[in-house]
Design goal:
- The complex is a heterodimer of chains A (about 120) and B (about 110).
- Helix content of chain A is about 0%, strand content about 50%.
- By secondary structure, chain A is mainly beta.
- Chain A is globular and about 40 Å long.
- The termini of chain A are far apart.
- Helix content of chain B is about 0%, strand content about 55%.
- Chain B has no helices and eleven strands.
- In chain B, the strands form two sheets. In chain B, strands 2, 4, 5, 9, 10 and 11 form a six-stranded mixed sheet that branches. Chain B has a five-stranded antiparallel sheet with strand order 1-3-8-7-6, with no helix packed on it.
- The termini of chain B are far apart.
- The chains are: A mainly beta (about 120), B mainly beta (about 110).
Chain lengths: ~120, ~110
């Protein structure tokens, strides 16, 4: 039973380029959450999606960041025109239902480095 | 906005020793979760505590939830190198999103 799969594990981008981070939830999970983590810090919520819908994007910057979870395929977190401050580990988590009654399962993250 | 403070930030001890780490909140927890995150991996849920005064045990790990539901502790007995990791606490807010502490980085030396 595959867990939450994120790719790539490491991504290096130059300032101004685009970064696309992918997340395939666990089988049977239709709820996806994206978090960002800086070194020695906890996770910061970015966005919560269900299939084809953004439920809560209150933690995601309004500019340059977007997320989707299409009917088919993985969830994508897209960062346009990356800046050095975007360097961080980005984690995806999935659950079978809403978080208040379903535990989260995390992927191993994508570590984005902007040079 | 609720703030979760974890202490200590960093702890390095010898194998076999006991330790306690703490998670304190500026407001009442609704549902507190403890996670362990190993280097290069995502967090893994250890336990969820909901009721004030609740105590849960997971092998050598004992989790306590304060009576007022504003603090929690994690006690590890006879720590082993495999316990090394970042221990995170998180609370679910009114929007059903997790608010995270910054974590306690624990190193157990063999």
């Amino acid at each position: 039973n595959a867990g939450v799969m994120q790719n790539p594990r490491h991504l290096v981008r130059r300032r101004g380029q685009e970064a696309r981070l992918r997340c395939s939830p666990m089988k049977g999970h239709s709820h996806v959450y994206w978090y960002r983590q800086l070194p020695e810090e906890g996770l910061k919520f970015m966005v919560y999606l269900q299939k084809e819908n953004i439920i809560d994007e209150s933690g995601m910057p309004k500019e340059r960041f977007s997320a989707e979870f299409p009917k088919e395929g993985p969830s994508i977190l897209r960062i346009q025109q990356v800046v050095r401050g975007d360097s961080a580990a980005y984690f995806c988590a999935s659950s079978p239902g809403q978080m208040y009654n379903s535990p989260l399962h995390f992927g191993n993250g994508t570590r984005l480095t902007v040079t | 906005t609720q703030l979760l403070e974890q202490s200590p930030q960093f702890l390095s001890i010898q194998e076999g020793e006991n330790l306690t780490v703490y998670c304190n909140s500026s407001s009442v927890f609704s549902s507190l979760q403890w996670y362990r995150q190993e280097p290069g991996e995502g967090p893994v849920l250890l336990v969820t505590v909901v009721t004030g005064g609740e105590v849960k045990k997971l092998k050598r790990l004992t989790f306590q939830f304060g009576d007022a539901r504003k603090d929690s502790s994690l006690h590890i007995t006879a720590a082993q190198p495999g316990d090394t990791g970042l221990y995170l606490c998180a609370n679910m807010d009114s929007n059903y999103q997790l608010i995270w502490g910054a974590g306690t980085k624990l190193i157990i030396k063999p």
